[in-house]
Amino acid sequence: MNPLLNFIFSRRSIRKFTQREIPEIMLIDLLEAAMAAPSAVAKDPWHFIVLRSRTAIDQLATVLPNGQMLKEATAALVVCGDLHQAHDQQLSFLLQDLSAAIENILLAANALGLGACWLGIHPREERIAAVSRHFALPAQVIPVAGIALGWPAQENATRTRYNPDCVHQERW
Length: 172
Hints:
Layout: H1 6-9, H2 24-34, E1 46-51, H3 54-63, E2 75-82, H4 91-111, E3 115-120, H5 125-134, E4 141-150
Helix pairs in contact: 2-4
């Protein structure tokens, strides 16, 4: 593994957090990293709900069956996309743009020493409806993912998942 890429290889989904608060400036750093992501035709359809209160974070945990680590997280993000802002108002472009932003958040969190875990909301209709209702989203705004954030209470080894069987040269 190339050591220059350690911030990628050491990024892991963190599900155990300490109760240390995340400084506001670090949350802004994460949002700046998110908004530095590529976006189809630079439409930037993303919107982010920052959750800091225990009540709001726990509300998100109640609607995400695999999001119980949120109960230990000291912050969370809900990553949403405005379909009216997306390139050609296409869901596929919105999902690609938001996925790039989410990955930037995860990598930035790791680089800053934070732990993060990506929690899918889209395409589960019941999750989309519950998150939209809990957080008062406008009709054209689609919640795509939640991200649990905090200071990691666990360490994971750096690793690569490179598989040469998945690499094809010039053609399949």
